[in-house]
Protein 1
Amino acid sequence: MRIEIDRDVCIGAGQCALTAPEVFTQDDDGYSTLLPGREDGHGSPLLREAARACPVSAITVSETAS
């Protein structure tokens, strides 16, 4: 999977980090960021739910071609 965070849209609500803390965190400014080594989501069952929880739809999750 590919995870993208549009930092121009992110408002730092933190819903992604609350929903999938094994994938997302917040940087020093409070904006969403991926934890190191989690760029592909590592099969987190809550990854898509975290994207849906974003109040401004700043997170995009897509399948990657093999």
Protein 2
Amino acid sequence: MPLSHLRPALPATPAPELAAPALRAFFAIAERWKLKNAQARRLLGDPPESTFFKWKKSQEGSLGRDTLERISYVLGIFKALEILFPDPTRADAWIHRPNAAPPFGGASALDRMLSGNVADLYVVRSYLDAQRGW
């Protein structure tokens, strides 16, 4: 089965109008997941601290393709969890719990996502989509 549906379809140069809604959604999810600033920054690909805090405060700015791709995976992970766990508290807690499934090896999904590699966001998204039957 092709996995092309998992990879966000992003233009070579992200459209500036995508930045503000993407950042608003990302920071809303980060708040729901109770992420520390360092964790949220890591999920975004470790932008400079000044850039991160500017994005967090204004929830707008210029985003590169890598950052937009990362946000897209986070949105997909969030959506999959909302589908799998209709109780928002349970859905939001899932990423923090240890998981014995092969992609996690006893660590949490958040631990996997915080490795810094965009591929690890992809792995978590793929795992959740498989659990949904996609």
